[in-house]
Amino acid sequence: MPQLWWKSGATTDPNCGQYGRVKADIYSVYMLRCADGSLYTGIATDVSRRLQEHQSSPRGAKYLRGRGPLTLEFQQAVGDRRDASKVEYLLKNLAKVDKEEIVSGRKSLVELTVSLQLNQASGTSGG
């Protein structure tokens, strides 16, 4: 249950919704496969809604325009927006081979992100 912050008046805190309540949205990271075989990575609170936006709305990512049909290949709930953005960044910086390992289920998202973080901490490159 989200913690409530009872503040008087409007809040300018981006993490707070109407009436000063902390937003409790759970973000997921997802990967879409385009017709050309490329993978697009993004985050959303509602992946099915976001896929619809990509397919038929001006709110969809410019990269995906004209690359349909799009298929949802992977999605996993991550947590808050900050954590989801971090995971998205890690995924976008993976080699396509590693992304394919996640999509196929041969490697988990946790395995790859932990190994990347260990490699970055030790100063070696992942590959």
Structure description:
- The N terminus is likely disordered.
- The chain contains 4 helices and 3 strands.
- The chain has a 3-stranded antiparallel β-sheet, sandwiched between helices.
- With 127 residues, the chain is of the alpha+beta class.
- Helix content is 35%, strand content 17%.
- The chain starts with 26 loop residues before the first strand and ends in a 5-residue tail after the last helix.
- It has a single domain, classed as GIY-YIG endonuclease (3-Layer(aba) Sandwich).
- The protein is globular and about 45 Å long.
Give a nutshell description of this structure.
With 127 residues, the protein is α+β, with helices and mostly antiparallel strands. It has helices at residues 47-56, 81-92, 96-104, 109-122, and strands at residues 27-33, 39-44, 71-79.
| CATH topology call | GIY-YIG endonuclease
Low-confidence parts: 1-12
Radius of gyration: 17 Å
Overall residue-averaged pLDDT value: 80
How many structural domains can be distinguished in the coordinates?
A: 1
**CATH architecture field:** 3-Layer(aba) Sandwich
**Tally of extended strands?**
3
Look at the structure and give the CATH class: Alpha Beta
Helix content: 25-40%
Number of helices: 4
Largest sheet: 3 strands, antiparallel
Strand content: 15-25%
Strands side by side in the biggest sheet: 2-1-3
What is the SS-derived class?
alpha+beta
Instruction: Using the alpha-carbon principal axes, give the shape.
Output: globular
SSE run: EEHEHHH
- Separation of termini? 40 Å
